Amino acid sequence: MENLSTGASQKGIQLIGCSDCLHPVWRSEVASHEEVDEGTYRVGDLSVVLTAEVEAAHKIHHLLIFPSLSSVEGFIEIIGDRSTNIAKDGRPNVKMDGVEIAQAAVDVDALYGPCHAFTPWTAMYRFHDSLEDCYGDLSDRVSYLELGLSANSDYADRIQHLQDVTFLTNSDAHSPVPLRLAREFNRFEMEEPTFPELRKALHREGGRKPVLNVGMPPQEGKYNESGCSRCFVHYGLEQAIELSWRCPCGGRIKKGVVDRVNELASWPEPRHPGHRPEYVSIIPLAQIIAMAIGVKSPSSKKAMSRWTPLIEAFGDEVSVLVDSPMDEIASVAEPRVVHAIRAFRDGRVILHPGGGGQYGSAELPDDPISLQDY
Ligand SMILES: [Zn+2]
Ligand SMILES: [Zn+2]
């Protein structure tokens, strides 16, 4: 928890979901910190709310956000005998469908919605064609939909039945370093980083609302295009259907998010409703530095020795990537790193889409611009 707090402040994050709060050990770790408001724990400068994913029927992942520890415990009581690994696995498997999960959440006053909704293995749109198809009558009370790493709001706003839903750009982290933490994040307008304020913001009540979705470019996701899960060759939708989703190498072709969205889409172009915030694509600063100086690993010493002074000078990654004036960045970073940040801001980084389970990749453009431009 303390490590997470340090990493979050370097990244510029004030509120996180703890994840895995159905797990007894992790839950008591979270609960050992000061509860500063309903369902909100404080670790250093970081606020932590109670969240968990469950894997329910048809391998669909649902995200739950709880208002209190007793709500978590009530939820476990309801679903406990439908799961064999609830005390062992951070993301337990539960033999319940979407309607039953939603009902259990409603019963304990928790918020619910689909996780990484477009992922072709473990998500709502792999099996269902709509929120209603998944949650039945309780689809009206869905608080959010997680876009997942391979989709953005341009994709999801081509689907008419999602127009009223709040989109979340969440990412999970298995390590607290800023490279891993908050690869995607949301910015909300709210009074303070607490669960009650978050609930209002998700429901867009009392002036609270999401104001920015920040995500990886969807092309970098593992399932952006349809591709073979063995040899990673990419296929167009028609070609994949022709091959009956079998690659000549013998592997299975996994349907990519782009093709799934094309199937579900009501419109050829996105139609953003008035409440939809801007979606900003972001690439971790260390990855941009690694590309700029030509090293493979963003966590290498060479990349980190250039990352640290930028964070010291500007406070956090988001300031460097999005907000700070380029001439100030140029006074701290060497020219090739400045070029790379500039290319990122201008949307000139070249993206090679992922597919079949292999992440996409990014490459810097081959058009050096003059330093005078800063
Ligand atoms: Zn999941
Ligand atoms: Zn193949």
Descriptive account of the structure:
Helix 11 (285-293) crosses helix 15 (335-345). It is globular, with a radius of gyration of 21 Å. It is α+β, with helices and mostly antiparallel strands and 374 residues long. Strands 1, 2, 3, 4, 5 and 6 form a 6-stranded mixed sheet that branches. A 3-stranded mixed sheet has the order 9-10-14. It has a 3-stranded antiparallel sheet with strand order 12-11-13. Residues 370-374 have low confidence and may be disordered. Helices cover 32% and strands 18% of the residues. It has helices at residues 2-11, 24-31, 69-79, 98-107, 124-127, 131-135, 153-156, 195-203, 237-242, 257-264, 285-293, 301-314, 317-323, 326-330, 335-345, and strands spanning 15-17, 34-37, 40-43, 46-56, 60-66, 111-114, 145-146, 167-168, 185-189, 209-215, 226-228, 234-235, 253-254, 278-281, 350-352, 361-363. The chain has 3 domains: 2-218, TIM Barrel; 224-257, no CATH class; 285-348, no CATH class. The protein has 15 helices and 16 strands. Bound molecules: zinc ion (2 copies). The site of one zinc ion has 7 residues, from loops.
